[in-house]
From TrEMBL:
PANTHER family: NADH DEHYDROGENASE [UBIQUINONE] 1 ALPHA SUBCOMPLEX SUBUNIT 9, MITOCHONDRIAL, NADH-UBIQUINONE OXIDOREDUCTASE 39 KDA SUBUNIT-RELATED. Pfam families: NAD_binding_10. Residues 12-196 form the NAD(P)-binding domain. InterPro entries: ComplexI_NDUFA9_subunit, NAD(P)-bd_dom, NAD(P)-bd_dom_sf. GO terms for molecular function: protein-containing complex binding. This is 3-beta hydroxysteroid dehydrogenase. The lineage of its organism: Bacteria, Pseudomonadati, Pseudomonadota, Gammaproteobacteria, Alteromonadales. It comes from the Bacteria.
Length: 306
């Protein structure tokens, strides 16, 4: 058992980043527990039942005792595309607060929270307002050591480019020259675990390649071995959609509000990791081809879950 990190509790353990963190902890033979509302995804990836704590983070009473004996909490809890009918304030803020209060009560030493790159400067965006309200409460904690990690966009979100490329054309709002350095979940998971042993309280992080939106689209076409077709629409369309999205229910327009605001300027965070986006897209394409081949062999219609 690797005890240099102490006993870790991962919240949001069934999400994209959470599952990468759990995988990394298993590989490192760390002592950990995974907090989840449903256990299926974790058991499917081979996590022992006795490592899973079943709880509903939106209900404080459900969390009682979950932090007993825990040294470090890593929280990746948040709404991305969940369709629970809850608001960002209910999950990104309140559910994380429920967990923090339980961690403080139980004497947890360190609490690491995943916010988003540039969130402090984009407080008019509903998801980021909820995230930074929690981050501020965490950073003010006097009972444990706080740590807020603000990562750039994840590779999983760059899949939107891949899906458009697969359908034949990538549509971009603006000139396609806005730059960002997205990060792979595996690299970010390593970064989060490394933060357990570091002193700092706030970190910005992005992946190893700075790419424009046009370059991301081209990587997707190349992985799919398709001709590049990119259409650019004037940036005022983005601004108009963004303006109206703020007045519509966040359940419907929250993700669009976030991505359209992020696309307004370069988003370049300090570089970390080794994973390249082109390889990620190629891997998606390989998996889809393998699934299609398998379905063909069985005489079924391919159903890509890559
Ligand atoms: N995606 C990005 O580009 C990006 C960039 C920067 C920061 N972030 C932030 O990083 C964090 C992790 O992102 P991710 O992509 O890994 O998110 P994700 O895949 O959507 O995972 C979110 C986790 O939160 C849990 N969760 C959400 N609503 C819940 C609820 N009502 N009750 C209980 N659990 C709930 C999910 O549980 P279930 O599996 O049960 O739904 C899941 O475990 C998020 O806070 C996100 O905002 C994301």
């Amino acid at each position: 058992m690797n005890d240099k990190y102490g006993r870790i509790l991962v919240a949001g353990s069934t999400g994209y980043l959470g599952m990468h963190i759990v995988k990394e902890l298993v590989e490192k033979k760390c002592d950990f527990k995974a907090l989840a509302r449903s256990t299926g995804k974790l058991t499917e990836m081979g996590v022992d039942e006795d490592k899973i704590i079943h709880a509903r983070v939106t209900r404080a009473d459900s969390l009682q005792g979950c932090c007993d004996g825990i040294d470090v909490v890593i929280s990746c809890l948040g709404i991305t595309r969940q369709k629970d009918g809850l608001k960002y304030m209910d999950v990104d803020y309140q559910a994380n607060l429920n967990l923090l209060e339980e961690a403080e009560r139980a004497g947890v030493k360190k609490f690491i929270y995943i916010s988003a790159f540039n969130a402090q400067n984009l407080q008019h965006i509903r998801i980021l307002k909820a995230k930074e309200k929690f981050a501020a409460r965490l950073l003010a904690s006097e009972k444990l050591t706080p740590c807020v990690i603000r990562p750039n966009g994840f590779f999983v979100d760059m899949k939107e480019f891949y899906i458009m490329a697969k359908s034949g054309k990538v549509f971009l709002l603006g000139k396609g020259d806005v730059k960002l350095n997205p990060i792979h979940g595996e690299d970010l998971a390593k970064y989060c675990i490394r933060a357990i042993l570091k002193e700092g309280q706030e970190y910005d992080v992005g992946g190893p390649e700075v790419l424009s939106e046009d370059e991301i689209a081209k990587l997707a076409f190349s992985a799919l071995k398709k001709e590049e077709k990119i259409s650019h629409f004037p940036d005022w369309i983005r601004r108009v959609i963004l303006f109206f999205s703020r007045y519509l229910p966040e359940k419907k327009t929250g993700p669009a509000e976030f991505f359209l605001s992020a696309m307004a300027q370069d988003m370049i965070a300090p570089i970390y990791g080794t994973k390249k986006l082109g390889e990620y897209f190629k891997d998606l394409a390989r998996r889809e081809r393998a699934l299609a081949q398998k379905a063909k062999n069985k005489g079924e219609t391919p159903d890509s879950g890559a």
